[in-house]
Write a structure and sequence with these properties.
about 500 residues, alpha+beta, 5-stranded mixed sheet, 15 helices, globular
Length: about 500
């Protein structure tokens, strides 16, 4: 990977041609402290029973927040840790009455969970537990400004260890993929309408990392390893784990992941070892993905997606989300999917109710492709590991980019945009077309050049960028992109910015 050089800020501005000034004047709000205590409640496979969401909204009508994929954060009214624990346990107990219990190591695509073979794929996902440390559901914890003060069994330490020692595994289906399969240790991609008795694509070796370090630590997209019968795909994955134990560094926390072995040994070495073990890698053709988004901008499936701005289930001017949900949740017959990018996805059997919700919201098309495709982790002040804000500035940063795109004549341009409060990258920023990764309060590293499909890692564009300067820094870049896109209509932002980074490196700019 080529080394990115960084010139002083003044030289950076000179390297970019002047662009027309817009009237955009973003005002990034002062970071507000969260409620003293919140209940964070996790859902198996991200599936929420309508009654569970009703219970949460009744307890905190305007302030429930989708904290991450599979988790909702509900503010509590109690003042002390002991009172909050009692209040949170009672609320979680009411939600547990409708909870699905079990253990899971794999994230499962919505299309598989909502298809005719969903029971078979759920059972297959349970088989994948052998590849990782499964996590038990239902589960809840009480947080006080990022710190865990109480949790249901298992203990917070045990659960944290399970989450971070396990491999990231997903079951996906083309043409889109929800879970960012290229960032997973293992991904099993299901051909359309197939069943566990058929064949499955195996991907392996994806994950984030550190730019500028050794190949073993750098971010890497998962590689396609071939099309296998389902059982053979699982056995091939088990063999890869054995290879990693024998030839990798499983005792090194920084290099224990499979991506380190593939990055250092190479795919040819992996393929030879698989063939020696009786597997037949690289046969057939890799599946083609249109994007990694949850919303395509057209089609019947979009009717089922209820966008949740900034992950907060609240009423805002022109978008009365909390009221619409409270009115229509009793009509839903199936569970709701909490998507990896923080939106609600209804079951096809509830399509008529989804239309009623959109009609109540009055602005089903009021969210741009960028705002729907953007994602953020908790960030400050919700996560004790975070170094900067993420979810609390997501709405403003996405709105600033949307305004700039509109000023450039690209009002509906889809750009995958993600924010992470620290380099751990829970929102998977290093696979996005544009990403902010926090390094201190209000200061971010700006990465760019990933793809909409998530099959390419982003590169460092600007180090230590103050968030207030983000719109001004992006404005001339977006004008340059718009000018080029008028000549090449099919050009994506990720492809263009990667070329732009190469040109800046070759010319000595930053």
């Amino acid at each position: 990977m080529a080394r990115t050089t960084h010139a002083p800020r003044k030289k950076t501005k000179q390297a970019l041609p002047a662009a027309p000034q817009t009237e955009l004047q973003p005002a990034f709000t002062t970071l507000h402290l969260p409620p003293m205590h919140t209940l964070e409640y996790s859902f198996l496979d991200g599936l929420i029973h309508p009654a569970q969401l009703q219970t949460a909204l009744a307890h905190a009508p305007q302030t429930c927040r989708l904290a991450s994929f599979s988790t909702i954060a509900i503010p509590l009214q109690s003042g002390t840790d002991e009172q909050a624990a009692a209040e949170g346990d009672a609320l979680a107990g009411a939600m547990n009455l409708h909870a699905a219990a079990g253990e899971r190591a794999a994230d499962i695509s919505t299309l598989l969970l909502q298809g005719n073979a969903h029971a078979e794929w759920t059972a297959f996902a349970c088989e994948l537990n052998a590849l990782s440390e499964p996590v038990s559901y239902p589960y809840h914890q009480i947080r006080s400004r990022g710190k865990i003060v109480h949790a249901s069994a298992p203990s917070p330490e045990t659960r944290f260890a399970a989450l971070h020692k396990r491999n990231r595994i997903c079951l996906e289906t083309p043409p889109h993929h929800e879970h960012g399969l290229y960032g997973c240790d293992f991904a099993f991609v299901v051909p359309k309408n197939d069943r566990p008795s058929g064949h499955i694509h195996l991907f392996a070796g994806g994950g984030g990392g550190i730019h500028g370090g050794s190949p073993a630590l750098a971010p890497r997209p998962a590689s396609w390893l071939g099309l296998y019968p389902c059982g053979e795909a699982v056995r091939a994955a088990q063999h890869l784990l054995a290879l990693n134990a024998a030839h990798g560094e499983p005792d090194n926390p920084r290099k224990r992941r499979l991506k380190s072995l593939i990055a250092t040994r190479g795919l040819d070495w992996i393929g030879d070892r698989l063939r020696q073990a009786g597997f037949t890698p690289f046969l057939g053709h890799a599946p083609i993905f249109l994007s990694s988004g949850e919303w395509s901008g057209h089609g019947d499936a979009d009717e089922l997606l209820i966008p949740v701005p900034s992950g907060t289930l609240a009423d805002t001017p022109g978008y009365t989300l909390a009221t619409a949900l409270q009115e229509h949740l009793p009509l839903l017959q199936q569970r709701i999917r909490l998507t990896p990018q923080g939106h609600l996805h209804l079951h096809p059997e509830d399509r008529s109710t989804a239309r009623l919700i959109h009609a109540r919201l009055k602005t089903p098309d009021g969210h741009t492709p960028l705002s729907i495709a953007s994602a953020a982790c908790r960030g400050l002040p919700h996560c004790k590991r975070a170094q900067a804000a993420a979810s609390s500035i997501k709405q403003e940063t996405a709105a600033a980019l949307d305004a700039l795109l509109a000023a450039c004549g690209l009002a509906r341009e889809p750009i995958s945009f993600r924010i992470s409060g620290c380099p751990n990258g829970c929102s998977r920023p290093l696979f996005a077309e544009l990403a902010l990764i926090g390094r201190a309060e209000g200061i971010y590293d700006l990465f760019a050049g990933g793809s909409r499909q998530g099959d390419r890692t982003a590169r460092l564009l600007r180090k230590a960028l103050p968030i207030a300067e983000f719109p001004g820094y992006m404005e001339p870049l977006l004008h340059l992109y718009a000018a080029q896109k008028r000549q090449q209509p099919g050009l994506t932002f990720g492809d263009w910015i990667l070329q732009h980074i190469d040109r800046m490196e070759n010319s000595g700019g930053a």
